[in-house]
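Human: I wish I could look at a protein chain and see how it folds. This is the protein in question:
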Amino acid sequence: MRVRDWQDILEEVTDSGADPGGWRAIAGDRDRGIGEDMYLGHPSAGAFQLKTYAKNPFEVQGVGTRLARRIDDGLDPLFPEGDAGRFGVQSPMADEDEAEEAATKLESVLETHADAPTTPDALFEDVMGALDSPAYGPMEYDQYDRPDGLDDFADEFEEAERLLDAELDDLVDENETNHGFQ
C-alpha cells in the first residue's frame, strides 16, 4: 500500500476512465483528530481512502491510498446505494473557452429541466453530464458526525486506517495546525 497526497488519489479517480456515474462514496468526521474520512469506490476502478483536513479556510491537505483494485462482493454492501445523497468530482477547466462551453451546456440543461417535469436524480445526472464530470454518484455523508459505514470500512481496512491516521497526524503536526481553524 502506497500513501500519497489526497489530490493524487483524486487525480487517479478522474483519470481512471471508469463509467463516471458508477462511483459511490461515504464520508464524515474522522474517528480521532481533526479532519474527515472519505471512501470512494467503483466496481471496475477499485476502492480509495482519503483523510483530509482544512489547514485554513482556503487550503485542504491530506493523504490517501488505493485500497482495492475492484469492488468485490465483500466491499459492495459497504458503499451506499442510489437513495443516498449525491457527490461529484470535477476537474478544473483547461481554459476560458472550455469554461464558456460548459456554462452553455449547463444553462441548456437547467432551461430544459425548468420547462419539463423532472426528478432530482435526472437533473443531477444531466448536470454532471453537462460538466463532463469524471466521477459522480450516491454518497452517504454527515457534516456533523461520522456515518456508521465509515467504521465498517475502518474495520475492513485496519492497516490502512492506522497508517493514514498516522500520516495525517504527522502532516497536521508538521504544519503546526494542531486544532484547525476556528
User: Anything to note?
Assistant: Residues 96-115 form the longest helix (20 residues).
